[in-house]
Amino acid sequence: AVRLLRRPKSNTIVLSGLSGSGKTILFYQLRDGSSHQGTVTSMEPNEGTFILHSEAGKERKVKPVHIVDVPGHPRLLPKLDEFLPEAAGIVFVVDALEFLPNLRGVSEYLYDILTKASVVKKKVPVLICCNKTEKVTAHTKDFICKQLEKEIDKLRTSRSAVSDADVANDHTLGTPGKTFSFSQCTNKVSVGEASGLTSKIADVEQFIRDNVKP
Length: 214
Fold this sequence. Notes:
Blueprint: H1 2-5, E1 12-16, H2 23-32, E2 46-50, E3 65-69, H3 78-83, E4 87-95, H4 103-114, H5 117-121, E5 126-131, H6 141-159, E6 189-193, H7 202-211
Parallel strand pairs: 1-3, 1-4, 4-5, 5-6
Antiparallel strand pairs: 2-3
């Protein structure tokens, strides 16, 4: 009876992040191992249920994954709310090449995800995926992690001034009175690297395997 009442574990992984970070290329790499010669900015979510390209042909039983690539255009951010309640994991893609000019926007988007009730209550794991690392001038994942923590720490202060009515659905981020770090989050936040163009997506694939169980 208990098993019947239990909802089946979600197999949905949500790819999120600002426009231009490389989410759609990662989607295609996961699906068929191709970058599709680069892509243009998406205005509609890319969705598919498939066995990861790297798992295809293996004899052991492999569970198909439902991947959703949510467009990063500011006007389309409400689309993200449609998919987060079903997420088994969230891959937050960051452009490691153009990171500093977009630091504020990236931090605000990530802050919004980490304070969503649907993410916090279910402790949905988040992978911060630093993409485009094949470029010599790309920032390291450690640098990106530290800068995001600093910026989110500032955001916590400014957002706490917002009236309670506006944040009824949100959760306070981090430990009050302490400098913010991702280790304080209720859900597990990890940082990885990827290069969508050169098919180096091992960190993303491992994150999916860890959170979508057979």
